[in-house]
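Support request from a user on the community tier.

User writes: "When I paste my structure tokens into the form, the page sometimes reloads and wipes my input. The last time it worked, I copied everything first. Here is what I submitted, just in case something in the input itself triggers the reload:"
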């Protein structure tokens, strides 16, 4: 029994050492179509314009205090959500849907080639970050979902970048500003 215990522990250590999880810093370096977390509105617009000239920009709107902007083409859709900070609005999440004629396996292979092996996999959900469950995540994360057939019979894939730390920092700044204004909602 005592000979088994050290070899079992060694096997577990080798398994976990072989695939270290992505750190929050790694995920912050990820981009989805050139857009990274923490970018300003003008940086996001410049990145989108440089990438594709026929991309339609849907006017930004505010939903529940979060600025949103959507870029659309026939083959993709990008929703970027911004949060207010004292130095301006910053991208706190991106939701990218892409449509293609290839197989789900081809889509997944191209995503893995760009971002490497995910930290968590559950069926068609791949996650780079600290938690599989999005409601428990404390650090920035990238999520990829390989879907079935979607728009006009094309395959659908989705990539989502999120930074709960940036969202929390924004909420803290809004609360601090509201307290300084005597409870009034600040404008950034």
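"...and here is what came back when it finally went through:"
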């Amino acid at each position: 029994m005592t000979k088994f215990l050290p070899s079992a522990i060694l096997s577990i250590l080798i398994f976990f050492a072989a695939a270290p999880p992505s750190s929050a810093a790694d995920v912050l370096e990820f981009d989805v179509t050139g857009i990274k977390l923490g970018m300003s509105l003008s940086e996001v617009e410049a990145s989108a314009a440089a990438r594709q000239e026929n991309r339609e920009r849907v006017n930004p709107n505010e939903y529940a205090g979060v600025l949103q902007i959507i870029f659309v083409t026939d083959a993709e859709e990008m929703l970027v959500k911004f949060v207010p900070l004292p130095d301006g609005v910053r991208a706190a999440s991106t939701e990218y849907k892409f449509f293609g004629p290839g197989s789900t396996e081809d889509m997944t292979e191209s995503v893995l080639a760009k971002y490497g092996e995910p930290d968590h996999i559950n069926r068609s959900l791949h996650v780079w970050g600290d938690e599989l469950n999005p409601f428990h995540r404390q650090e920035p994360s990238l999520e990829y979902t390989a879907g079935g057939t979607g728009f006009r019979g094309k395959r659908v894939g989705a990539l989502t970048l999120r930074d709960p730390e940036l969202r929390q920092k924004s909420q803290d700044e809004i609360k601090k500003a509201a307290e300084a204004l005597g409870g009034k909602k600040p404008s950034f």
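Agent notes: The reload is a front-end session timeout and is unrelated to the input. The chain has one domain: 20-131+139-180. Confidence is low (pLDDT under 50) at residues 1-21. Escalated to web team.
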